[in-house]
Write a structure and sequence with these properties.
This protein is of the alpha/beta class. Helices cover 56% and strands 8% of the residues. It has a five-stranded parallel sheet, with helices on both faces. The radius of gyration is 19 Å and the shape is globular.
Length: 274
């Protein structure tokens, strides 16, 4: 495979840099136990991605996956990026990139982690690098975004939250303003993610009411970024007032602080260029 420099035109630089900054912020802010949980979520979501239609036109060889993992684990900050972008430049389809190289590397990293062949620090570093590259290629990976115009918005109460009044009021408000809004209350993490994979929302608003939900929210945002690369993700609820910069910490696009003006704010967010 050719080993050329990174072609910046192939990447969505904004999404790439935001993903990189988010992983660095999470490492700096959250305890190791939480960071490990988040890394395992990314590995799990990437490793078991399944094709929506036809399978990849060819699978990477085990040797190629080994090379990619070595690059992701190396001291060279962008070695993994160059590997993936060079595969793309050499003609690999988006399906092969995502379902072959990325999923294959995630599976291999997971195996190495379980077998104690890599340290916690190494695998979380590699996971962050793998995540940022798929975020940078989100416009390539999610080529079906154009078909999402007019699709509904999901208001989802964070797993383990029990106070439903706020989300019920918000859902009713948006519906009265003519929005097509679905509400998720009482669903666990995997159920919320599965719902988004089935319905492909234009925006997902995650509602949480306590500071202790931060790790849950970060985990959910990471999973949604993988399953719906182009969807706008917003945090709302009392947690916004309790945690400074909660949108940056969770990796969301924005946060809604008050019900007044929420409709116009979300309209502005969803209208922004992706």
């Amino acid at each position: 495979m050719a080993r050329g420099p990174i072609d910046s035109e192939q990447l969505d630089r904004s999404a790439y840099e935001a993903a990189d900054a988010h992983f660095r912020r999470v490492h700096k802010t959250l305890p190791d136990e939480a960071v490990e949980t988040l890394a395992r979520e990314v590995v799990r979501r990437l490793a078991f991605r399944m094709p929506r239609s036809a399978p990849p036109d060819h699978d990477p060889t085990p040797e190629e996956i080994d090379m990619l993992c070595a690059d992701l684990l190396s001291l060279d900050e962008t070695a993994g990026d160059r590997f993936i972008l060079n595969a793309r430049r050499d003609g690999a389809s988006p399906e092969v990139i995502y379902l072959g190289y990325v999923a294959g590397a995630a599976r291999r990293l997971g195996e190495m982690w379980e077998q104690d062949r890599v340290s916690f620090l190494e695998v979380t570093l590699a996971t962050g690098r793998l995540y940022r590259i798929i975020r940078g290629l989100r416009h390539v990976i999610d080529s079906g975004w154009a078909a999402l115009d007019g699709k509904p918005t999901l208001f989802a109460l964070a797993p383990d939250e029990t106070h439903t009044l706020g989300i019920e009021i918000a859902t009713d408000l948006f519906r009265r303003e003519g929005w097509d809004v679905e509400m998720s209350v009482g669903e666990d993490h995997d159920s919320i993610v599965a719902r988004t994979e089935s319905n492909r929302y234009q925006a997902v608003v995650l509602v949480a009411n306590s500071e202790g939900m931060v790790t849950q929210l970060v985990r959910l945002v990471l999973a949604l970024r993988i399953t719906q690369p182009m969807t706008k993700i917003v945090v709302a609820g009392n947690i916004v007032a309790q945690v400074d910069g909660v949108d940056a910490l969770t990796g969301a696009d924005a946060s809604i602080t008050e019900i007044e003006g929420a409709v116009e704010m979300l309209r502005t967010i969803t209208a922004q260029k992706h």
